[in-house]
Amino acid sequence: MNLDHKDRQLLALLEQDSRLTNAELAEKLGMSTSACWRRVRAFEEAGIITRYGAVLDRGRMGESFHAIIHVQLVRHDPEGVRAFNRAIIQRSEVQECYATTGQADYHIRVRCADITAYNAFLEEVLFRLPAVSSAQTNVILRELKV
User: Domain containing 107: what range?
Assistant: First the structure.
Protein backbone atom coordinates (compact mmCIF):
# COMPACT_ATOMS: atom_id res chain seq x y z
CA MET A 1 0.00 0.00 0.00
CA ASN A 2 1.42 3.37 -1.01
CA LEU A 3 1.04 5.98 1.71
CA ASP A 4 0.66 9.65 0.91
CA HIS A 5 1.34 12.59 3.22
CA LYS A 6 -2.22 12.60 4.65
CA ASP A 7 -2.01 8.86 5.33
CA ARG A 8 1.20 9.31 7.30
CA GLN A 9 -0.28 12.24 9.25
CA LEU A 10 -3.36 10.19 10.08
CA LEU A 11 -1.27 7.23 11.26
CA ALA A 12 0.94 9.51 13.37
CA LEU A 13 -2.13 10.99 15.07
CA LEU A 14 -3.53 7.53 15.81
CA GLU A 15 -0.18 6.36 17.09
CA GLN A 16 -0.04 9.32 19.50
CA ASP A 17 -3.63 8.88 20.70
CA SER A 18 -5.77 6.02 19.43
CA ARG A 19 -8.76 7.38 21.37
CA LEU A 20 -9.25 10.33 19.00
CA THR A 21 -12.67 10.16 17.43
CA ASN A 22 -13.06 9.99 13.69
CA ALA A 23 -14.45 13.55 13.76
CA GLU A 24 -11.39 14.80 15.69
CA LEU A 25 -9.03 13.06 13.27
CA ALA A 26 -10.82 14.47 10.24
CA GLU A 27 -10.76 17.99 11.69
CA LYS A 28 -7.03 17.82 12.47
CA LEU A 29 -6.32 16.57 8.94
CA GLY A 30 -8.71 18.98 7.17
CA MET A 31 -10.71 16.22 5.52
CA SER A 32 -14.25 14.89 5.64
CA THR A 33 -15.22 12.37 8.31
CA SER A 34 -16.24 9.80 5.69
CA ALA A 35 -12.89 10.04 3.86
CA CYS A 36 -11.04 9.77 7.18
CA TRP A 37 -13.08 6.73 8.22
CA ARG A 38 -12.42 5.02 4.87
CA ARG A 39 -8.68 5.52 5.28
CA VAL A 40 -8.66 4.12 8.81
CA ARG A 41 -10.67 1.08 7.69
CA ALA A 42 -8.29 0.56 4.75
CA PHE A 43 -5.30 0.64 7.15
CA GLU A 44 -6.98 -1.92 9.40
CA GLU A 45 -7.85 -4.21 6.50
CA ALA A 46 -4.33 -3.91 5.03
CA GLY A 47 -2.81 -4.84 8.41
CA ILE A 48 -1.03 -1.49 8.80
CA ILE A 49 -3.04 -0.87 11.97
CA THR A 50 -2.73 -4.16 13.82
CA ARG A 51 -4.36 -3.22 17.13
CA TYR A 52 -5.28 -0.38 19.45
CA GLY A 53 -4.08 -0.13 23.03
CA ALA A 54 -3.10 1.89 26.04
CA VAL A 55 0.40 3.07 26.89
CA LEU A 56 1.03 2.39 30.56
CA ASP A 57 3.37 4.17 32.94
CA ARG A 58 5.06 1.09 34.38
CA GLY A 59 6.97 3.17 36.96
CA ARG A 60 3.71 4.34 38.51
CA MET A 61 2.56 0.71 38.53
CA GLY A 62 5.47 -0.21 40.82
CA GLU A 63 7.76 -1.52 38.09
CA SER A 64 10.70 0.79 38.61
CA PHE A 65 13.50 -1.54 37.43
CA HIS A 66 13.99 -1.29 33.66
CA ALA A 67 16.72 -3.01 31.65
CA ILE A 68 17.77 -4.45 28.33
CA ILE A 69 19.30 -7.92 28.31
CA HIS A 70 21.60 -9.04 25.50
CA VAL A 71 21.29 -12.84 25.30
CA GLN A 72 23.60 -15.24 23.52
CA LEU A 73 22.47 -18.80 22.86
CA VAL A 74 24.71 -21.85 23.24
CA ARG A 75 23.58 -23.33 19.98
CA HIS A 76 20.96 -22.58 17.42
CA ASP A 77 19.11 -25.86 17.44
CA PRO A 78 15.44 -25.41 16.57
CA GLU A 79 14.05 -26.96 19.77
CA GLY A 80 16.29 -24.87 22.03
CA VAL A 81 15.23 -21.70 20.22
CA ARG A 82 11.54 -22.69 20.43
CA ALA A 83 11.85 -23.39 24.19
CA PHE A 84 13.56 -20.02 24.67
CA ASN A 85 10.86 -18.22 22.66
CA ARG A 86 8.02 -19.93 24.56
CA ALA A 87 9.52 -19.06 27.95
CA ILE A 88 10.18 -15.42 27.06
CA ILE A 89 6.76 -14.82 25.49
CA GLN A 90 5.00 -16.07 28.63
CA ARG A 91 6.78 -13.77 31.08
CA SER A 92 5.07 -10.55 32.15
CA GLU A 93 8.43 -8.92 32.93
CA VAL A 94 9.34 -9.08 29.24
CA GLN A 95 8.05 -5.98 27.47
CA GLU A 96 9.78 -6.61 24.13
CA CYS A 97 12.05 -9.25 22.65
CA TYR A 98 13.92 -9.12 19.36
CA ALA A 99 15.98 -11.75 17.55
CA THR A 100 18.93 -9.77 16.22
CA THR A 101 22.13 -9.94 14.25
CA GLY A 102 25.45 -9.18 15.86
CA GLN A 103 27.05 -10.43 19.04
CA ALA A 104 23.79 -11.04 20.91
CA ASP A 105 21.15 -13.37 19.49
CA TYR A 106 18.29 -11.66 21.35
CA HIS A 107 17.66 -8.30 22.96
CA ILE A 108 15.03 -8.33 25.69
CA ARG A 109 13.52 -5.27 27.38
CA VAL A 110 12.28 -6.08 30.89
CA ARG A 111 10.39 -4.17 33.59
CA CYS A 112 9.92 -5.39 37.13
CA ALA A 113 9.54 -4.06 40.64
CA ASP A 114 13.19 -3.90 41.67
CA ILE A 115 16.61 -5.54 41.44
CA THR A 116 15.44 -8.45 43.60
CA ALA A 117 12.60 -9.23 41.21
CA TYR A 118 14.99 -8.90 38.28
CA ASN A 119 17.47 -11.28 39.87
CA ALA A 120 14.63 -13.77 40.43
CA PHE A 121 13.73 -13.50 36.73
CA LEU A 122 17.35 -14.24 35.77
CA GLU A 123 17.82 -17.13 38.20
CA GLU A 124 14.39 -18.76 37.91
CA VAL A 125 13.71 -18.22 34.21
CA LEU A 126 16.48 -17.05 31.93
CA PHE A 127 19.44 -19.00 33.33
CA ARG A 128 17.39 -22.20 33.53
CA LEU A 129 16.88 -22.28 29.76
CA PRO A 130 19.40 -24.75 28.30
CA ALA A 131 19.92 -22.70 25.14
CA VAL A 132 21.07 -19.59 27.05
CA SER A 133 24.85 -19.23 27.04
CA SER A 134 25.16 -15.75 28.53
CA ALA A 135 23.21 -12.63 29.33
CA GLN A 136 24.51 -9.09 29.68
CA THR A 137 22.31 -6.48 31.32
CA ASN A 138 22.18 -2.79 30.55
CA VAL A 139 20.11 -0.94 33.15
CA ILE A 140 17.98 1.83 31.68
CA LEU A 141 18.60 5.06 33.56
CA ARG A 142 15.93 7.17 31.82
CA GLU A 143 13.72 7.08 28.77
CA LEU A 144 14.31 9.76 26.17
CA LYS A 145 11.77 8.59 23.60
CA VAL A 146 9.13 5.93 23.91
Answer: 65-139
Q: What is the DSSP string of 73-117?
A: ES---HHHHHHHHHHHHH-TTEEEEEE-SSS-SEEEEEEESSHHH
Decide if 52 is inside a domain: no
In this predicted structure, what is the pLDDT of residue 59?
A: 85
Give the sign of the dihedral formed by CA 141, CA 102, CA 145, CA 84.
negative
- Whether residues 76 and 132 share a domain: the answer is yes
Tell me the residue length of the chain: 146
d(CA 15, CA 8): 10
69 and 135 in a single domain? The answer is yes
* Same domain, yes or no: 41 and 73: no
pLDDT tens per residue across span 34-85: 999 999 999 999 999 999 998 888 889 999 999 999 999 987 788 999 999 9
Q: Which residues contact 71 (CB under 8 A, 6 or more apart)?
A: 104, 105, 106, 107, 108, 126, 132, 134, 135
CA dihedral sign, ordered 47, 51, 57, 61 = negative
Please state, in angstroms and as integers, the Cα–Cα distance from residue 1 to each residue in 8, 13, 40, 45, following that order: 12, 19, 13, 11
